[in-house]
Amino acid sequence: MNNFPDDVLENIFDYLKSNQDRNAVSLVCKSWYRVEGFNRKRVFIRNCYAISPEKTLSRFPRLSSLTLKGRPHFAHFNLVPPDWGGFVYPWIEAMAKSCVNLEDLRLKRMVVSDESLKLISKAFVNFKALNLVGCQGFTTAGISAIASNCRFIKELDLHENDVEDLEGKWLNCFPETCTSLVSLNFACLKGEVNLLALERLVARCRNLTSLRLNNSVPLETLHKILNQAPQLVDLGMGPIVYNADYEMSQKLNRDFQKCTSIRSLSSGFVEVARRCSLSAVYVVCKNLTTLNLRYASRINCHELFNIIDNCSNLQRLSILDHIGDFGLSVVSSACKKLQELKVFPTNSHALGNSFLTEAGLVAISRGCTKLESLLYFCHRMTNAALITVSKNCPNFTRFRLSIHDPTEPDPTTSQPLDEGFGAIVQSSKGTLKQLSVSGLLTDKVFLYIGMYAEQLEMLSIAFAGKCDKGMLYVLNGCKKLKELEIRNISFQNETLLAMDVEKYETLRSLWISSREITVGGCMAVAEMVARLNVEIMWRFAYAADTNRMDKIYLYRSMVGKRRDAPGFVSTL
User: Fold this and answer.
1) Span 486-502, pLDDT tens digits
2) For the domain bounded by 315-479, which CATH number is listed?
3) DSSP 3-state assignment of 490?
4) Beta strand 549-556 with 509-513: parallel, antiparallel or unpaired?
5) pTM (2 decimals)?
6) CATH among 1.20.1280.50, 1.20.120.450, 1.20.272.10, 3.40.50.300 for 1-40
7) Which of 264-278, 294-308, 448-462 has the highest mean pLDDT?
8) Cβ neighbours around 161 below 10 Å, total
């Protein structure tokens, strides 16, 4: 195939959809590397500091879709300072200068300024999709520029962003000729929106299939929207106080009966009046595959159980822990097809108030044997429960468990939770890719992880005591490990330096929170491994000349030290 013309190779490469497959063929020979780079239009970069915008555009000159991540995912747990970095403007500026035909931009945990959004709206005439997840730094002035100037916009998705609403009139900026929207999500946006402009926009976008509203949209407007867009597949209703009168209840019942296409529903029902029922929602429950009630903190248990009882086809559920162990037994009985379950704490700052124990997890495993992905916050856990779960659900791809006291042993035997987590790893050894462990642990569990976690790519460990030997078990055994997070653990210089250079080269990132690693140890690693950035985060900017480090972040980079590091970050 080395003798094939470039256009033939391009046609062949078009059939390769995954980045892994494309990366693999690009390594065959120089000509394939060149043709694949010229041919690739969709680019996914997991760390915006791993490569420069210029190198990316030189490698992929026909790029039209870019997914870019900034802060590491540990930022979800407030482990990364908000002013750490992750600026998107240099990327937008470089693409604008290179005149690439950017159509699709997806950013996660990045700093996005209004200037960036305005430049996007002016520089890329065929721009169609903007997806921002966990981003900060912009206001509705930047969103208004996207709405005003991007004539072919199909997707505008703002998910869990910190957005400041300066005007409340951004919906007015969509021109009357805009009929192309397929997805619109402004659930995270605080403040009022122009309800009339929203209704008119929904009415003229006949292909709109995903709509997620914020908490300023009342039931009367929801009623009008459902009438105008019965084709919706994904609906987010925002935190609504459901105290509708009889007439409105009847209207919503009729509206939902027409919306037979809805498969995904998210809502933060804040309160349901005693005289009311959510019977209007029951109509669509039987067709739902995804239900997100993460923000429904004050819905009464009776209505919550009624909703779940009607969701026999549910595959993905996000919910708060106030559902309790009994509520999870209801889920187990009703949702036999469940594949993903996320149970969040009602108050993320007070995990001690968790309503869940090991009983709820066991109940879920008995009824939902197809479960593949789990996020579970609970008050306690036992080895016996984890072993039962491993037998009932042997195909986990993600298993993330957080216990209120992360140093708590098995409450029934006072033993570490090694055997329980070891059972999970062993039963799912061919599928498990992400693992987050919690509770009292010893080196034994890490021996199990190193032995059995053949497909593991991401591991998060917290408060596990002394684990230097255990980490070597993991690093030597988990050949596919890409991301490792070590928090509040006694981790020594010796362990950091004992890791093979080859392992540092295969790891995408390593996050360590340990006071026992010194600056000298970090410098030794930086000198030992080429193309490795070692970032030291100090507790205070003025402490950069002391040994009082807070966190260490190691990641591979083709461009060396970053130039925009704040004062409390030192890059070796």
Assistant:
1) 887 777 777 777 777 77
2) 3.80.10.10
3) strand
4) antiparallel
5) 0.92
6) 1.20.1280.50
7) 448-462
8) 20
